[in-house]
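Many introductory courses stop at the sequence. We go one step further.
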Amino acid sequence: MTEEEIREFLAGLEDGAVPIKKVRFPPLDAPAAQHELRTSLHHLENVPVTITAELGQGQLTVRDFLNLKEGTIIRLDRVTGDYLDVLVNDQVVAKGEVLVLNDVFAVRIHTVLPPPWLGAGEEIS
């Protein structure tokens, strides 16, 4: 708005008669067809991600948490033989099993889960 239009508007407020104008928008045209951009994920290959293997979850009261000491057993929601969740950046992406290789824990991937946007029944291509 120009300064003059602002003055007219404010003067109209004092008089109680504010001019009302109908707004006219230009017609919306469909966007021109765009070519689908395809790119490689090659530039993301060296981006680090955090991998977490979650054995299970449990709940404690604050009192029980504060009383934790060496030897305390925390009950988890999984039973022996269940697959554990494999998370990438806090998102579950696979199911796997715990192994010990040369005295170091490892995870063998059993199932890779589809991304959430694909839906449960669709396959990854």
